Amino acid sequence: MKNWKRMLLSLTISVGLLASAVPAMAAPQETSIKVNDETVEYTAGAPINDKGTTLVPLRSTLDAMDVKLTTATDDTITAVVNGKTITLKSKLTRINGVTYAPIRIVGDAAGYEVHWDAATRTVLLVSKGGETETVQTGGRGFMWEVESNGNTVYLVGSMHIADESFYPLRKEFEEAFAEADYLGVEIDISKAADEAQQKIVLDLGSYQDGTTLKDHISNETYAQVGDILKQNGLESNALDTFKPWVVESTLASLKSMKAGYEASAGVDLYFIQKAIERKLPVIELESYESQLGMFNNFSKELQEKTLKATLDNFDVLDDGVNQMAEMWKTGNDEQLLKLTNSFSDDEEYNKAMLTDRNIGMADKIDGYLKNGKGEEYFIVVGAAHYLGDHGIVKLLEGKGYKLERK
Q: Where do the H-state alpha helices sit in 133-189?
């Protein structure tokens, strides 16, 4: 299992950018909804999982919660809860004439706690103050606070891929976010499906010169790719048009999705969605071009080396993701530091993925702290960016700031 941690780096430290541009590979899994331990029976439509986000038929779900739907447009829902009219913002999806909405947004707005029972793949809506034996809570996670010149910055370590068991987040996250004037993220992945972003992925990640994957990697590595694709019900040449760094991320995403972890359930996207609801400005510390360009600029040797590590350890990848999820939920700084240090065995990889990016992000955070506008920033980036000799925490301490672990 050598280097199994490194093969997860593009999933846990760089946002999952490729899901909208490469073939969909994970088979859908059924999800159930319970309201105060009563299973919701759907006659029109059924809950679906959209890349980690559970979408439910809106009217039937609201009826089960004793909530009366008034109107539903493309991005606005008006309903009556306990005699009070509420309005919430959420992108709605229409499938075969049925209107779907994200269950977490709907449940929260209707006054329910939303939990996830991974063992039974059930979303549990619990009236606040009620009880259920199967409720699972989220975790401690990673957060630091730093103040300067009347400004406050909260630094949150994300797992870019997650599942519903990460939620609800502990109150310190929600309270800090509620006071924020800005949300800062590596990149705004809510725009991942935009045509312009998909074009960047395809332009950088696929071969434009008439060659294919097998022309750029060894016969052994190419055969391994084909074997894994066939094992997952796909043609062995399904990814031939893509470069090794895209193939590596796609296969790792495939495995993590089958284990129940997806980028659209990640901690950063959770806060991006809440920022959209609040109309809170979202600022990017990096860009699609910079992140994708970093992967694309890896040497040919490094791209195959990283792909080979994923192939050699494919069967245990889900175990690795489970370990990282547990690390996040327990907020284990020691394990996070150990994870970060494990990436240092390849100078090219470590410099691009961590060192250079950390410097750029720390400099931007330094600018937020210095502007003297009395503002609060809630910054969410991959957890592995924070610790270690080249981590954001030490870089900010080197600039004279004092950070408090929350």
A: 171-178
Close Cβ partners of 66 (under 8 Å, ≥ 6 residues apart): none
One DSSP character per residue, 23-74 reads ---SPP---EEEETTEEPP-SS---EEETTEEEEEHHHHHHHTT-EEEEE-S
Long-range contacts of 128-134 (CB under 8 A, 24+ apart): 130/36, 132/36, 132/37
Question: For residue 342, how many other CB atoms are within 10 A of its CB?
Answer: 15
SS3 state of residue 100: strand
* DSSP assignment string, 116-138: EETTTTEEEEEETT---TT----
User: Contact at 8 Å (CB) between 355 and 406?
Assistant: no
Joined together, the tokens standing for residue 377 give 């920033």
254/27 Cα distance (integer angstroms): 10
Closest CA to 17 of 201, 204, 196: 201
Mean pLDDT by 10 residues, the chain (406 residues): 45 43 45 89 83 79 89 82 80 85 82 73 76 53 94 93 81 94 90 71 88 95 94 89 90 78 79 86 91 90 90 81 85 86 79 92 96 93 91 96 95
Place of tokens 């592995």: 384
Strand order in the sheet with 48-50: 48-50, 53-57, 98-102, 93-95
Q: How far apart are CA 212 and CA 389, in angstroms?
A: 39
Q: Is the dihedral of CA 23, 26, 30, 35 positive or negative?
A: negative
Alpha helices (H) along 355-405: 356-370, 392-398
Instruction: Report in angstroms the alpha-carbon separations of 89 from 211, 237, 370.
Output: 46, 42, 33
How far, in Å, CA of 385 to CA of 320, rounded? Answer: 18
| Strand order through the sheet with 68-72 | 68-72, 76-81, 84-89
- Give this prediction's pTM: 0.73
Which of these, 392, 385, 379, 394, lies nearest to 354 by C-alpha position? 385
DSSP track, 297-332: TS-HHHHHHHHHHHHHTGGGHHHHHHHHHHHHHHT-
Where on the phi/psi map is residue 256: left (φ > 0), alpha (ψ -120 to 50), or beta?
alpha
